[in-house]
Amino acid sequence: MQELVKINNLSKKYRKNSFYSLKDVNVTINDGDIIGLIGKNGAGKSTFLKLITKAINPTTGSIEYKGQNIHQADNVLEPFGIMIETVFLPYLSVIDNLNFYLEIHNKTEYKDNIKNTLNLVGLWAHRNRKPADFSFGMKQRVALAIALVTEPSFLILDEPFVGLDPVGVSNLIDILKQWASKRQVTMIISSHQLEELESLCTRYIFIDQGQLRKAFNKNVALMEIQTTKLSDDLIKTLKQYGQTVEYNAQNNKIVISKDISQKDLNNLLLILTQAQVINSISNNNSQLKGFFDTEKG
Ligand SMILES: Nc1ncnc2c1ncn2[C@@H]1O[C@H](COP(=O)(O)OP(=O)(O)OP(=O)(O)O)[C@@H](O)[C@H]1O
């Protein structure tokens, strides 16, 4: 996969703080990645997204988009669709907001997209109303329409599910899935709603106290095995299964990926059964929840 964004030793210390909100982050984002950005409150997620969208400058380090340092180049954000802070004007109608947005960004060639975009986010029927009178979820959808109207190939969404009811959340996921299925698009979505992220994302970036703790691909788990403490020999054996089998020594959990071959799966279960180390076997539905548990422990 082609490298799209390269983040090099990125750090940010806000002027009035004595601490770094982001410290020495190095990560690469590939074309087509749908990234879930996760981390506790205050971890640095919004800071990370604001740096990528040039809303703020790094203290040190750089962000390259297709090889260009975004903070040193002009017009580099052209292919970006951004939903970070409220960008619409509450007392202009929805349709006027979109027209206005396209005009001030010199992107009037996308005016023909307005109808389709508003249909996609379910706001076409409300196009002549003003967002000031909208519910929170409808306001979120106005912001999303603004992010999508220029058909961005790189979409950056900060907590898009916050404040939406379950129907709103599932509609938004459908919209994003539909969007991604129709075009080559890269997304970064920050959220605390792990289940929602898991239904969308192909990769995750976990930030903790301003540091990138882990960047990892979605590992579609087939099952999770709770074991007793494993011997070094058994741990060595597990390593032979490569990425399809992950063992966490902290909580004695083995996660088996869906990619494992039938032969390997049978072998592995036989070995574990003979060693009499299995406590329980379950379906592992949430890679992220398990990951947070591990981090706490
Ligand atoms: N403009 C600012 N000035 C000073 N400090 C800031 C500013 N913005 C964020 N911070 C601080 O930087 C740290 C990271 O904040 P950030 O908003 O990036 O976290 P977050 O992971 O997005 O949190 P949340 O999940 O609560 O939205 C926090 O300690 C926060 O107080």
Written description of the protein model:
The chain is an alpha/beta fold and 297 residues long. The chain folds into 2 domains: 3-216, P-loop containing nucleotide triphosphate hydrolases (Rossmann fold, 3-Layer(aba) Sandwich), CATH 3.40.50.300; 220-296, Alpha-Beta Plaits (2-Layer Sandwich). The chain contains 9 helices and 14 strands. The strands form 3 sheets. The chain has a 6-stranded mixed beta sheet, sandwiched between helices. It has a 4-stranded antiparallel beta sheet with strand order 2-1-4-5, with helices on one face. It is globular, with a radius of gyration of 22 Å. The two termini are 34 Å apart. The mean pLDDT is 90. Bound molecules: adenosine-5'-triphosphate. Adenosine-5'-triphosphate is lined by residues 14, 16-17, 21, 39, 41-47.
